[in-house]
Structures
1.
Amino acid sequence: FADNDLPDEKSGIGKGLAVAEELCAKLEPIAKRLRGVVLMPSGFKDVSDYIELGSASFEDIAELIANAPLWEIKEDLKLIGKQDKNVKHKPDKQKPEKKSSIEQIQEVYQDLKPYLFKDKEDNSYVEVFIEDHWECYLVVSKRFKQRLRHEYYRYFRKVLSSDTSLNAFIAHLDASAVFQKHHENVGLRVCGDMQTISVDLTDSEWRAVDITADGWQVVDKAKHKLVRSSGMQALPLPAPNGALDELRELLFVDDTSWALLAGFLVMCFHPSGPYPILHLVAEQGAGKSNTARMLKSIVDPHSTMLRSDCKDEHNLFIACATTRLPIFDNLSYLSQQMSDSFCRVATGGTFATRMLYEQDQEKSITIIRPVILTSINEVATRSDLLSRSILINLPRIPDGKRISEQIIQKRLDDMRPRLLTALFNAVSLGLKKLQTEAFEFDALTRMLDFEKWVMACEEGLGLEQGEFQAALYDNRRLINEVALSATVLPKLVIKLISIEKDVEARATELLQMISELADESDLRAKDYPKTSSILGKQLKRIQPDLRTVGIHMDESRKGNDGQRYYRIYTKAEDGDEA
């Protein structure tokens, strides 16, 4: 364009810009890249005028050009360059092919240094590096989709508009993870083994605490894989020193109940369970909901601290899948099915459901969690659930000692870093004892792992040796009383044996004997066995509770027709029949 008099802004408003755009259209076929710079403030000035008037230097202009966006040719100018015969095109110069959406997503994904893996149930996970830390996601989760969309925009500076491409890419990752040979342990809030336990602090930097027999430390990347769910809230950074006894200032409990609560808190950091179910029972105004909320905020703060009753097992498992320590508040009744479901949650249960549009396949949800229940009356009455429970009756708070929830929360927030330190110290001490000592004891309950773990951590909790087991033994006696008084049949069997001492009969005959001892209220009770088959099932269920008061039962078949007989009798302390 040498020696040509090109129009500038002096030639008319917008004339120079229009010519510049036309020139760019002619240069587009041969130029490697084009940038357009609009000098501000606008006016009837060209670049020479702009510099002469002191608006900018040559260096300023060069910087503006370097930072200017790439110029894109307008639709109505695309033919200009092709029609200009004076422009010589570079030979054999082809533009790079445009990448598809999936290829662009793949490029973003690889930039995150991903580590793809699966757990024992073939659920797929991915660990990615975000800025200066590692984050772990369930591949098919909404949160991972959001992460990919966000990183795509940061990488390309444009919105990912194709849901189809994103879904296809995630399906590919899911399949790739499932067919890998190895798997990893994955946990929500807590994950680990008896060598190292990792606890997610759930802060924005994805830091965690790794606890070993040698102590604990805050780490940028946990040894074990920790995944998060929506609603999880951050734990505070542990303080240099702490003692769990400080929490007693906010709890109105006796020494026995305190030992059990301390044991329950430290059990929440056990890596595998089975776990106990803490059942807080109290009248209105005794602070049972607030006590449950305080315990959860120490080990597993969440946006949903208290949950209402779950009507079926599916909803129960979904609720427990999103939090480490679920609380079911103000329960009024537990059905037989839900009682069994809570047992499965505490000991490790799997809920299976048909996958949408895949009727030949099932989707399994495996959950194992510590649980807190609160109620005015004892809703846990079935023996199986009671045998896995800690039952604490909270006393009513005297009117003169009540504290507002705002003050309680403020004091608790101040304590939480120190309380967390005390619990981590106790866990470390427990790991050390279990690794270095021949730890043997006589179990008092069926919750062997719970007893063993808390007794190993006992010193770190500020308890005397044997204090926790003594408290647990007292609690077992209370639970046995609840089990025996919860239904009609135990009372009637005890009454029968106090008269007969030793009874052997068929179920129909036993039902006749029991009915003769029952009063009108017993006969009207919902749980009264109205048939011999129901009686047989209930006898098996209450067998463990009857043994606690010295009543035993044997079952056998006799006669040519093999009819079932039940023998109910008492046994002396030395093992001889009375």
Note: The chain has 19 helices and 18 strands.
2.
Amino acid sequence: MAPQSRYWLALAVMVGLADQVIKGLVQALMPYGQTIPLTPFFNWGHWWNTGAAFSFLADSGGWQRYLFLCLTGIAAIVLTFLLCRPRPRLEALGYSLMLGGALGNGIDRLARGYVVDYLDIYWREWHWPAFNLADIALFLGVITFAMAALHERPSPGCPSDGMDAQNPPVRDMTLFGRLSPVLGCLLALTAGGLTTLSAAPFTLWWLGPVAVALVYVGIHALTPAQAALRGWCYGVGLFGSGTSWVFVAIHDYGDTGALLALFLTGVFVASLALFYAVPFWLYRRVTGPRLAFLSFAGAWVLSEWLRTWLFTGFPWLLLGTSQVDSPLAAWAPVGGVYFLSLITALTGTLGVELLRRRWWAAAPIAALWLTPLALPSQWTSPAGEPLRVALLQGNLAQSIKWTPEGQREAVNIYTLLARKQPDELDLMVWPEAALPMFEEKARPILERVQSNLSPDTALLTGILQRDGGDNYNGVIGLGNAEGQYRKVRLVPFGEYLPLKRLFADTIAFFDLPMPTMTPGAEAQGPIHAAGTTIGNAICYEIIYADRVAEQARDAELLLTVSNDTWFGRSIGPLQHLQMARLRALENGRYLIRATSNGVTAIVDPQGRVMARAPQFQATSLRGEVLPMVGNTPFTRTGSWPTWLLAALLVLPGWRFNTRRSG
């Protein structure tokens, strides 16, 4: 194809995609399952063949919107292929498939509009097969272009990956010539969206290594500032798609307008993205291309470690969390979530080396993915008879929870649910702050409920406590139970306000309808209930792997209570459940999870959900769990061996002359 034709086609694709990108980004920021009306300007691209091929994703609610953003990034790669010099036959095949996919979408839209509206013929039964075939053809066209580009070598005059002031050029280090910084940022933005898709509720775990590979490709051809920008773009893609539930919390429950909530969500996302920008800047500053597949994977895990504790930490959407359902899951009891992140990152970087025809990379990839077959399937053993448990889910609206009406409603709901439970219970659990009042006011109500239960039944509930001038978020036991637990890891801006003197006036909207909390003591023992010992994690704490491991060392069962009402109908509760599942797998313990409106669940020591209650219903979940004894390697050591290993992997790529690269 003539160069002029390439540029015209590239321009056509860019125009069609630009229309869809605007719409898709706006839609992606909306709460899960909701859409907004858009102006005709944002809709004209629907009738542009190229735009039509992607527009169905932007029109759909839920996971399709996130997939749309990822496919838009893939389309950016296609533009690169169009401006390269791929093999003519593969190029022709790719064009044919893309054209067929685009035309198929156009015909499908025409049929739905004309056949249904004017001829009154039922087209819907043919719609989805035609639509899916068209999309498959389009996707195959993209893959074909990728195959064509893999046959190309970087242009002799263009510096390739690894060229800087101190290091000689490394030949054939990129897949398709030199990546421009702009395209690299687009790939990183796409990679962030792919990481979200790898996690719950999408669970496309195989996208985790792909995301790392997209960020890794060509990074050593960048200056430190460009590497920081790429890392920031990855963070924006990750948190912009994966933590969009922040908008729900601020807008729906923080009494802010949509524009202000959107702005604050953007600030939140942009700030979190710095957790990748700064480490990537430092990584590019101090390392070279030597053994980069090791040093980059190590730096990735160190960036997650930094995100876990700095400014109280936010270890949400760690890369390894997505692997709870993958063949790598057997590594979790050995090294925990950060070890899963390290293996996933290594798979991505080694995969790039393999695509560069460095066939030796296949051996370590095979070792990482096949070794789990030889690992024990169970590291712990049962410690007694099964316990019969009931988890109550009140589904009280957050908008009224902290009002007098909400207090009365909570008492009525949980009292009624407790009466419906059978007498043969060992343990009944109410969620976090089930009764929206302090313990001194709630205790008479709880004792009345306990008096109607069997003497052998233990009642555990999340409760607000007041001790002098301090307020705590805790769990207490009644009946056949002894001990209490107070939450240690508090939610920034939700349960306390960081740097309050500095920001109190400007972010007063973060004062949620709950008293300011004080963290509990770091060293707290388990609760003894129903003849077993229970390690506790309240809500947000379950995402801290090492905190849960500390509790698991002296416990036979894990309990987490949560109020996920703040998430609304977003993907947040499903992400939260996935992290809880990984904690059960890491420590070889049954985990019971009681929430206000979902997802209430019982998880076995392999991280599998044995039973779950439907979301957004006042209901209860009954089942059996086994107390477990013995500790997994991760329970005994925690994450520090993985963090140390990650730091050691960075050392081979260390460049002692750290003057700015060219």
Note: The two ends are 35 Å apart (CA to CA).
3.
Amino acid sequence: MPNKLKNQQNSKRIFLATPFENGLAKRGTRFIDIAEMLQDEGWEVNYLTTNYSHAYKYFFEENEILKEQQLRKYKLYFIPIIGYRKNISIKRILSNLKMSMDFYKKIKKLVKDGDYVLIPSRPVDFIYFISILKNSRRIKLILDIRDIWPDAFVKRNIIFDFYCNFFLKRSIFKYDLFFHISPSFTNWLKRYNENAKSIFVPPGFNPSRFQNELPNPKSNSDLNLVFIGALQFQLDILPVIKAIGNIEKYSLTIIGENGKGQRFAECHNYIIENNISNVWIKGVIEPDEVSKELEKFDIGIIPMISNSITNKFFDYLASYLPILVLGTNDSSEMVIQNEIGWNAKFDSEDILKVLNGISKEDINLKIQNIEKIKNDFNRDSLYKKILDNISKI
């Protein structure tokens, strides 16, 4: 017991502040996994998040929050925020501003000289307000670049660009360490801090959730496609629906949409209006069920209109699913470079042309190529890189 107390007293303290990443959100778990690894390494971990689901637009119940806090080994804080229905709206901007200030106030009360603070790269006002902590504390700030504003938005204007640049130009230079999940994100970083260097740590997959074995060779020519994720604006699956609609040899299952996604209405209406019988929209499933569910399919779809490598990319990889990426981006480059899938335009004719050219032999070859690189993206080894580099600063 004395040794354990001594280790706790001598341990480093870190604050992971991530607005929409927690066990109740049923979304990405990057910071959750990192927090657990830091805890196991002897760090004193403080985790701050919010009481709102950004993806599904609802508030968590008090009893849910209490259970989640009891489940975790580290201190877990849920900060209340203003809810919003649209991702691109004045109300969301106001919510972000208030949330960022509230996180700043909470962390300032808790943080001490010598502590570490790790945050994701959105929203931009969040980056700014957390950076102000350095004005009164000798701490280390770490930025995990997972999204890049304003670049990530297809629909943007001068006002939004000004809003993003105002906060970023006044904050990025204060951060001590950077990680990024997509290779091209370093261009964004250089714009705001030309001398900054960042370490590439993609999302990877959780080996405890994905223990899939190498599947048997495919023996038929039917192709069962899957897209996993909410139908948000950044994810345009409609061209795939149009491409394969009522073509007997193809099917598409959409997993993870609760009917509130920005693109749900257009996809659902198109399916109904055209009497499409080979496309299904399923609801949200538990993260631990994803691995088993993906075993039923042949190809995973990435319809990301912005330049990012998402968690779903590695969910597919861990499940030995060859990947069809729409558009030209970091995901498509990774797929083509490693020969683990295909690339098509956001165009139904081009998508169908690509699908028609896929044989069962092609599927089997892509699966063999996935087997060659899969272990490179084991989350345990990737996140160990994060821990090692944090410890050095």
Note: The longest helix spans residues 90-110.
